[in-house]
Each structure stands twice: as C-alpha cells, then as structure tokens.
C-alpha cells in the first residue's frame, strides 16, 4: 500500500511481509516503509521478486504518482489515462 504522509511531506510505500509456517502459532512479520520525495517520487519496483505486487504498485502510481523503477506495466489502473493529477495526494 502507499500513502501521503502530509501536505508537502514525502510519499510512502509500505510492504507487509509475512512468513507462515506449519506448526507455528505466530507468523513472522516485517513491515518496510520506503519514503520518496514528493517532487520526484521514485522507488525501485519489487515486481521481479513478488509478481503479486503488480496491482499495488500500479494503484499507488495511479493514485499518488509514485513511480516504480523497472515495473513492466506501470500505467494507470483505476483512473482514465486522460486524468490529470494524483487523487489521493493531500494537496490534490
């Protein structure tokens, strides 16, 4: 997921990683937050490690304008291609 920290502040992309093992009651969990500047929000894509991140990276690009370097299909997924701006930014 991704979010806008505050008007004029960085944008954030959040990765929740969970390891589930049989016979273990409590899964191991890690939360990683990556912050990107508002003026040039670029973050390396993790698509090549986890293909399932495709929708989430495209959605945060579409809604917040975060560009994920080396993502193979980074384009709008919810808004029309003609849409101008990033609707989930606090300064939109």
From TrEMBL:
It is a peripheral membrane protein. Pfam families: Complex1_30kDa. GO terms for biological process: photosynthesis, light reaction. Its main location: plastid. NDH shuttles electrons from NAD(P)H:plastoquinone, via FMN and iron-sulfur (Fe-S) centers, to quinones in the photosynthetic chain and possibly in a chloroplast respiratory chain. The immediate electron acceptor for the enzyme in this species is believed to be plastoquinone. Couples the redox reaction to proton translocation, and thus conserves the redox energy in a proton gradient. Belongs to the complex I 30 kDa subunit family. This is NAD(P)H-quinone oxidoreductase. It comes from Protea angustata.
């Amino acid at each position: 997921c991704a979010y806008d920290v505050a008007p004029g502040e960085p944008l954030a992309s959040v990765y929740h990683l969970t390891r589930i093992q049989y016979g273990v009651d409590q899964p191991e969990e890690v939360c990683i937050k990556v912050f990107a500047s508002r003026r040039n929000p670029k973050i390396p894509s993790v698509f090549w490690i986890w293909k399932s991140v495709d929708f989430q990276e495209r959605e945060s690009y579409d809604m917040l304008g975060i560009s994920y370097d080396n993502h193979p299909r980074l384009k709008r997924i919810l808004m029309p291609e003609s849409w101008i701006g990033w609707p989930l930014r606090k300064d939109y």
